[in-house]
Amino acid sequence: LSCMVFQQKNCSEPELTASLKEGVEDIKMTATKIGEVQVACGLMEPVGDFVESFNFGLVEVVYEWARGMPFSDITSLTDVQEGIIVRTIQRLDETLRDVK
User: Fold this and answer.
1) Which ranges of 1-100 does DSSP label H, i.e. alpha helix?
2) How far is CA 65 from the centre of its chain?
3) Cα–Cα 20 to 30 A to 93, which of 34, 69, 82, 86?
């Protein structure tokens, strides 16, 4: 779900496991279906733009953080600044609390 809260556009490409790649593809397929319904209901945003609004740049970072990897090691997985990583994880935590 980090793709919903991470907003930075330019970052290094994450190295995803097979299960993470599958999850990313599932989210993109679901986003495509939602985008198509939005267009059918009169929303003017193109489906491709809606799907591209999800940013998967920190999927690997958040996954490794959740698995308990030390933060010093996590920062070596991406070129995203440490503060943005922390803010993204905090926003994700807040989002999950709201959903719960």
Assistant:
1) 18-40, 47-52, 59-66, 71-74, 82-99
2) 14
3) 34
Give residue 9's pLDDT: 77
Alpha-carbon distance of 17 to 72, in angstroms, equals 21
Is the CB of residue 47 less than 8 Å from the CB of residue 35?
A: yes
At residue 26, does pLDDT exceed 90?
A: yes
Taking residue 2's Cβ as centre, other Cβ atoms within 10 Å add up to: 23
Pairwise CA distance, residues 100 & 97, whole Å: 5
Residue in the structure block whose two tokens are 């779900």 = 1
Q: Which residues of 37-52 are buried (b: 16+ CB within 10 A; e: fewer)?
A: eeeeeeeeeebeebbe
